[in-house]
Structure formats: C-alpha cells, structure tokens
Amino acid sequence: MAARAKGLIVVAALAIMATGGLKVLTTGGLKASGYQIGTGAHRIISLVPALTEMLFAIGAGPQVVAVSSYDDFPADTRTLPRVGALLDPDVERILVLRPDLVVTYGSQDALEAQLASAGIRTFSYRHGGIEALFQTMRDLGAAAGRAAEAERTAGAIRARLEAIRASVRGRPRPKVLLVFGREPRSLQQMYVSGGAGFLHDMLDIAGGTNVFADVPREAVQPSHETLLTRAPDVIVELHTTRPIAGAEIARERAVWSALGSMPAVQNGRIHFLNGDYLVVPGPRVGAATGALARAIHPEAFQ
Amino acid sequence: MTVSQSAIPRVDAAPRPIRARLAMTVLSYGGLAVTTCLLAPLVGSTSISLSRAFDRSIPFADNIDAQIFFVARLPRVLAGALVGAALASAGVVLQALLRNPLATPFTLGVSAGAALGAMLAISFGTAVALGPLSPVPLASLAGASLAAAIVYALATKPGRPMSTSVLLLAGVTLNSFFSALILFVQYMADFAEVYRTVRWLMGDLDIGGLAPIAAVLPLVVTAFAIFAMLPSSLNLLSVGADIAATRGVDVARTQRLAFLSAALATSAAVALAGPIGFIGIVVPHLVRLMTGVDHRIALPASALFGAAFLVACDLVARTVLAPVEVPVGIVTAMIGGPFFLWLLVRKA
Asked: What does pLDDT average to over chain B?
C-alpha cells in the first residue's frame, strides 16, 4: 500500500481544502517551533514525501534517517525506517531514532508539540503553489545546512519551467480541464484543479488555460452541467494511484462521450498521464509540467 | 410520536371515503411532485435555451443546451425523485414495522452495508462493472444485500412473527459493526481514497445518464409493488402484532414483506445516490402531520412528497454555490434537521 501512495497525501490535502473551502493556503514555508536557522540538522526524519524528495535533491539524503510510510522516491528511501504518516505518526519510533529535525505537516500540531517538549526541532510544511514550493526548498535547505545546494536546485527547476514556458509562448492557450481523480467507468466523484495551487501553476506554465481558473480553490468537484458549460478544448487526466494503459484507457476515454458537446471530446483531445510524480509538489515538478505541456502542445515538442 | 394509539383504523368500515381521500392525496401530492420534476430541470448553474435544447435540427453531439438538459439535469431530477420516493416510503414502512417513530431506512444496517461495499470498491479500486452499474454502485448494492440478509436471518424464525426488538437490535449492532469495518478500511486506505469514501457518504445525484436509473429501476418497482399491498396490514401492525393477528392479518408474512420491500428500496436508492440522510425520517413525519396516520394515505403521500423534497433539495445543492456544488446529503440534513427539531418541539 505504501508504494503506490506517494503524493496522494497532496491530492488528499487538495481535496480536503476544497470542501473545507475556507482555508486556501497559498503560502508555503515554515512554522518555526523552537527552530533556528543556521544550524544544519544531521539526523532528519521526513513525514512529507514531497519534502523527502527535496532533501535528497539538495544533497541532504545522507542526513535522512527515516521517512513516512508513503515514501518511495528516490529509491534510497525504500531501505529507510518508516515512522507513520499524516494520520498515524509513530512518536516512539521517531524518538528512538534521535532526530534533530522532523519534517511535519502543518496540521500535525499534537506531534509538533510532543517533539518540541522532547527538544526536537520541527519543520512545518504548508502546501501551496509553485512559488511556495521554491520558498519551502530554500527554507528546508537552510534547516538542513544545504542552503547553497537548495538555491542551485531551485534555480535549475525554475530554469526548466521557464524553458517550458518559452517553448509554448505565442501559441494559442486551449481551455484545459485537469482531472486528478474520478470514479472508474463514471464521471462521478471527479476532482479537478481549481485556480489555486501548484497544479494550476503547472498548467499555466504548460500553456493551458485552466477552465476553473476563476474558482479560488485547489480542487473543484464539477457536476456534469458545469463540465458541459466550461467546454474544455483539452482534458488531461492524471492517474497517480493506479497507472492505466491499453484497453483500460479506451474504456475510460469512452466514458467522456456522454459529454459529447465538449470540444475535447469532439476532437479526441483526452490525454491520460500516469505517475505519482505528476502530483508531488517537489523537485520533479519540472518533469510533471513538461508532461502536461507535451499533452497540451504536442506540436511544440516535435 | 405520530404512530400512536389514534392509529387504530377502521379498515373496511368506509371504503368510499378512503378511496376519495386517496384520490385527493395522489392528485395533490402527485401534482406537487410532477410540478417539481418539471420545473427543476429548467433551473441550474447555467441558463440554457429550451428551444435550442429541443431543437432536433442540431445534432445532439453539438447541442450543448440539449446535453445540459438531457445529460446533466434530467437524470439528476429523475434520480432525485426515485431516491426520494424510495427512502421516504421505506421510512414509513419501517416506522410501522418496528413501531418506532425514530426508525429510518438506515436503521436496519442496509446503508452501512452499502457503505462498506462502496468503501471497499473505492479503496481497492475494483473495476468490476455490471452493465450500466459502475463498480462503486455495484459494490454498494452487494453490501446492502449482505446486510439485509444478515438482519433478516437473525430476526426470522420459520412460521413465527419477527421479533421487532431483535430486528432493531440486530440492525443497530450491524450498523456499528459495519461502521467499525468502514473506519478500518478507511484507515488502511490511501488519503485520496479516504476522501472519496467520505464524499460518497454525503450522497450525490449527479449520475450523468439514465442508464444507472434503469439499472436499479427493477428493484424499486418491485419494492413499490410490495408497498402497494401493505398499507392496511401496516395500519394494524403499527398498533400491535397481537391486535393485528386478531384482526386477521398474517403478521409474519406482512413483516417479511415489509422488511424485504423496505430493504430493496433502500438498497437501490443508496446504490444510485449514496446514503442521503433525513429524507427517510423527516418526510414520513411531516406527511403524517398533514394527512394523518392511515398508511393507505400516508404511504403514497410520503413517496410523492419525498420525491418532490429531494428534487428540491438537489436543486438547492447544485445552484446555491455554483459553480461549486454542495453535496445533497448536507442540504437534506441542514433543511431536514432543524425542521424536524421544530416539529418535535411543536408537538411537545
């Protein structure tokens, strides 16, 4: 179960925010709880897969001593001890591993308080857009004593995103529906990107116009009527939990024919992208944005 | 509350007045239901042109107004009417069967069974579909049937009346047991799927086509055919099994038919739209306040009023925050809950 779950925490967070509705978090970064910049941590535990990836990307991989039960990227994480996740952090195991920095979700107040009373610093993660991702990476770099590497890695990702933006510049920006979850064989229980968050930012860089850009949320659950009204030119489905291929794609594509008046259906512009990395707000955001751009503007990448 | 001693009916004393009252009831409540169902598809988050929607000269594939009307709105309204009628009737029947005003279609564990089925299908990503039934509705139907079968087996003994207290206790216990299993499945599942399971529990009528309705229609029709045979016996049964027996009611048979039909209607409704709450308890009580407790009137009136009520609630759900929707189960509970409390206070 752990192997296929990476990044889903993010999707769930999006979804929960969508219904909560009140709390649209656009800023990332850290909630300092007894945390001081300047002293790099040597024994880091990360409960947030996206931030585990960042730690490895900025060269702090050797300092990571344990990860969450959902981590599986990069491969080095698979041999590390697992200490639970968002809902079930195993405080005892965390304490036994003697960390000097624990990366937590911003909502894990109880865990943060427990760790603080044990004298362990926490890096509190808040989910946000792409700019927030860069800020998180820099803050994390400072906390891990890898500020320069974090700056370099962030710069490289930014350059990659800018290159994608440049290659689709001047092209018509089709209206895109970005789907990151729905019931199989049905258009019910669908979750799509609203006008906030990193998926929306990625879509913007990839040269698409989000059909739900006007809804200031990370996740929207559209009805059939809303889908028909928004009339997307392109549909991109992100399949993160279970990759789909072959006949399964044909079956799922056929489901959309119920809404045949949408240009995307009429022109057959329904794309299925596989992979957890598509929804992880971490160092692979450039690759994910590239995949989106190739789906939306295939002619720009020939 | 309303199922009280005043329910002692005069079953065959005055056939003509009851027939006239029934006709009046069907006419007025039916009129309400039909009007609601005709008006509801005209309103939505978008404004559409009806003349364009019914313009056959435009190919359906290119006619966005027609697609909104026939794909998005009409199936929703029909599903709302069907589910509302099924849950309200099942509520009336179970309140009489259990002689308990607090009984709902979900009291006997059927919805918890359906929910467990749906949770498993969502969490393990089964791709088993049966005709027009996609995996999640299919699994919830299976779970509902399993729960109904368990409760039925526990509460019936050959040739003897059902024990309503065993029915109630078995249902309540099964509800708790399945809820624990649901929590376990949710706890073991991935976050995204947990959220989807939670969303399923809020109910959703946006089924996107007539096929799912057609799939559960045979179950609902069967249930309603049985409902139609029950009212006179339910009148006597709701007073007491012994009194009913002395008046010539085959108590065991009536109880079984009542249980099976209510379970059938509830399973179909939950498979189609998830466990939408409050319809099954608020509508029967409200209708009995207006029509009196005679099931020959109250049962058809509840079915028709339930249809109108759920279609109206769904109209609120899909328009009030457009383009974002409110899950319809939240709307029924937010309207139904306070209203029910007001009824309780007023009666007391």
From this structure: 87
For B102-113, the DSSP string reads T--TTTTSHHHH
- Put simply, the answer to whether B44 touches A189 (Cβ < 8 Å) is no
The whole-angstrom separation of Cα B51 and Cα B66 is 9
- pTM of this prediction? 0.82
| Rg over CA atoms, chain A | 20
Q: Which residues in chain A have their CB less than 8 angstroms from residue B318's CB? A: 223, 225
d(CA A248, CA A239): 12
What mean pLDDT is predicted for residues A107-119? 91
Q: By the 8 A CB rule, do A232 and A262 touch?
A: yes
Strand partners for A66: A45
B191 neighbourhood in chain A, CB within 8 Å: 5, 8-9, 11-13, 86
pLDDT of residue A35: 44
Q: Which residues pair with A271 in a beta bridge?
A: A236
Q: How many Cβ pairs within 8 Å bridge chains A and B?
A: 129
User: Quick one: DSSP state of residue B159?
Assistant: T
User: Best mutation site among A16, A180, A214, A229 for testing chain B: the one with the most B CBs within 10 Å?
Assistant: A229
pLDDT on residue B336: 83
Query: Which of B45, B199, B324 shows the shortest C-beta gap to A215?
Result: B324
Which residues on chain B place their C-beta less than 8 Å from a C-beta of chain A? 44-46, 60-64, 66-68, 71-73, 122, 125, 127, 129, 134-136, 187-196, 199-200, 204, 206-209, 318, 322-325
Chain B residue nearest residue A212, CA to CA: B323
- Residue A191, φ and ψ in degrees, nearest 5: -120, 125
d(C-alpha A211, C-alpha A195), whole Å: 9
For residues A70 and A249, what is the distance between their CA atoms, to the nearest angstrom? 26
Q: How far is CA B290 from the centre of its chain?
A: 20
DSSP state of A92: H
Positions of chain B with pLDDT lower than 70, given as ranges: 1-16, 347-348
Q: What's the mean pLDDT in A174-198?
A: 93
Which residues 6+ apart lie within 8 Å of B332 measured at CB? B203, B276, B277, B278, B279, B282, B309, B310, B313
Strand partners, A234: A176
Own/partner contacts of A193-199, CB < 8 Å, gap of 24 or more, are A193/A218, A193/A219, A193/A220, A194/A18, A194/A218, A194/A219, A194/A220, A196/A24, A196/A26, A196/A129, A197/A14, A197/A26, A197/A127, A197/A128, A197/A129, A198/A128, A198/A129, A198/A130, A198/A132, A198/A133, A198/A281, A198/A285, A199/A14, A199/A279
Residues 6+ apart with CB under 8 A from B172: B107, B109
Coil, strand, or helix at residue A126?
Answer: coil
Q: Count the neighbouring beta carbons within 10 Å of the beta carbon of residue A28.
A: 23
Q: What is the mean pLDDT of chain A?
A: 87
The whole-angstrom separation of Cα A170 and Cα A151 is 30
Q: Is the pLDDT of residue A14 over 80?
A: no
Distance CA(B25)–CA(B208), nearest Å, equals: 32
